[in-house]
UniProtKB/TrEMBL annotation:
Keyword Glycosyltransferase: yes
Major localisation: membrane
UniProt-recorded name of the protein: Glycosyltransferase RgtA/B/C/D-like domain-containing protein
Membrane topology: Multi-pass membrane protein
Species assigned in the record: Salinimicrobium marinum
Length: 450
């Protein structure tokens, strides 16, 4: 066995060991207090063992291929989607997420739209969305399915299939930057992640939205190769489609793709003008998000509430939001109170947390080596993180979900360059020090929430 393979296994087993210790410590400490929620805790522990075992098998394999990647993703996703639905039914008397707010809204609205001719209901379809066009794409998708099947469980099966397709295209994207094995691992880590499975089983729009974003990145990279101009149509179609899922992401994608053209401009004057345009798009996007944020507060309470939230967010919360945006959101291991949904993300979130330092090493490598093909995914992730940090929305994984697969992919690019091409041990020591610092942060994040 090669030294490199032993190192990869050792690094992964360290994260697995830390995750198990956290689960056992907080689980034993709070087992009685959890009550019936202990079943959620135990299911998460089973998910942790299953997910990490699958990843470890791929790490140990001498030869890894795409077919086992897709089959493993589909199998694990299907099994835990079913178990999640059983838990939703047990704890919320419905087959939706625990809170059920948005998923129930999607279900009821789509069921209404599917009655009669969907095309003639388009006006109602747009009028019934909560925040403009942001939900309309998913509602149309649901309405078409309900027109045929009238069964929300079928949507979950479609979600599992869509997630498997997303994993395939993530692999195809990663293959341009990483060797075969790490490309498959980058797709697998996201595809069977507990947070990806949560959204497949919840009835929310994230699974389909992320598939479209991934397809948009895939078509971008494909159409830039000679003789692949046919992908321009797919690129434009997916970009327009994203408008009807989360509108502001189109602006972030435009900034990310624009950076590729920025470095091709030879005139300094044109470079400055182009940079101003990109900055204006980015700042305008944040303003748009801020206006939506204020509108939600106004709908829920009043401007006084908005003022209090904005003031409190400007001090400690905003600093914590930046930390959560960069390294988190940090996992919560114990289902106490109303955090059942966030607890479902924990098995894979801890791996994402420890991959985070490698993402920033990937930024360093991309800038140092002028690795411009990586810029779009790096910038998309950074634009999203910065905007969410400003709005103090980084604590909720649903907000961060659109950039997570690309964050993980870039992090593994950083990991590959650090452990294969970096000659100085100081950078590896720095990453190791960051990992050591993250352990007590995760501990106190959970301890203070008990």
């Amino acid at each position: 066995m090669s030294t490199k393979k032993i190192q990869d296994q050792t690094n992964f087993l360290k994260v697995f060991g830390i995750a198990i210790l956290f689960y056992l410590f907080f689980g034993v400490y709070n087992l009685k207090a959890m009550g019936l929620d202990r079943y959620i805790y135990l299911m998460n522990l089973v998910a942790l063992l299953s997910i990490y075992s699958a990843i470890f098998v791929f790490i140990r394999s001498e030869v890894v291929k795409v077919k086992p990647l897709i089959l493993t993703t589909f199998g694990i996703s299907l099994v835990f989607t079913i178990t999640n639905i059983i838990l939703y039914k047990e704890f919320s008397t419905a087959i939706f997420e625990y809170t059920g707010s948005d998923s129930v809204f999607y279900h009821e609205t789509a069921a209404f739209l599917s009655n009669g001719n969907i095309a003639t209901n388009l006006d109602n379809f747009l009028r019934l969305t909560r925040f403009g066009y942001d939900d309309s794409g998913f509602l149309l998708y649901l309405a078409v399915i309900y027109k045929i099947f009238e069964e929300p469980l079928i949507v979950r099966l479609f979600n599992v299939l869509i997630n498997s397709a997303t994993v395939y295209f993530l692999y195809r994207i990663a293959r341009q930057f990483l060797p075969q094995k790490l490309s498959i691992l980058s797709a697998l880590i996201f595809g069977i992640s507990s947070f990806s499975i949560y959204y497949q089983s919840s009835g929310l729009k994230e699974t389909l939205m992320l598939f479209i974003i991934t397809l948009n990145f895939f078509s971008w990279y494909r159409m830039r190769k000679p003789g692949n101009k046919k992908y321009v149509i797919l690129f434009l179609a997916t970009l327009v489609s994203i408008l009807f899922f989360r509108t502001v992401l189109v602006a972030f994608l435009a900034c990310s793709y624009g950076a590729s053209f920025f470095f091709k401009i030879k005139s300094n004057v044109l470079r400055v003008l182009f940079a101003i345009v990109l900055l204006a798009i980015f700042l305008g996007s944040i303003l748009y998000l801020e206006l939506i944020n204020v509108e939600r507060y106004l709908n829920a309470t009043n401007m006084a509430t908005t003022d209090r939230e904005t003031h409190s967010a400007s001090i400690f919360n905003r600093m914590a939001a930046v930390l959560a945006g960069i390294f988190g959101p940090f996992p919560s291991f114990i289902p106490l109170g109303d955090n059942r949904d966030t607890v479902m993300h924990a098995p894979s979130l801890i791996l994402k947390v420890f991959l985070s330092p490698y993402f920033f090493y990937a930024i360093y490598i991309a800038l140092k080596n002028k690795f411009r093909e990586l810029y779009p995914m790096l910038l998309f992730s950074l634009c999203h993180i910065i905007s969410l940090s400003y709005l103090v929305h980084t604590f909720k994984l649903r907000n961060q979900f659109p950039h997570l697969p690309f964050f993980i992919l870039c992090a593994l690019v950083g990991y590959y360059y650090l452990h294969n091409l970096e000659t100085k041990s100081s950078k590896r020591n720095l990453i190791g020090a960051m990992h050591i610092i993250l352990i007590p942060i995760i501990f106190f994040w959970n301890y203070l929430r008990i």
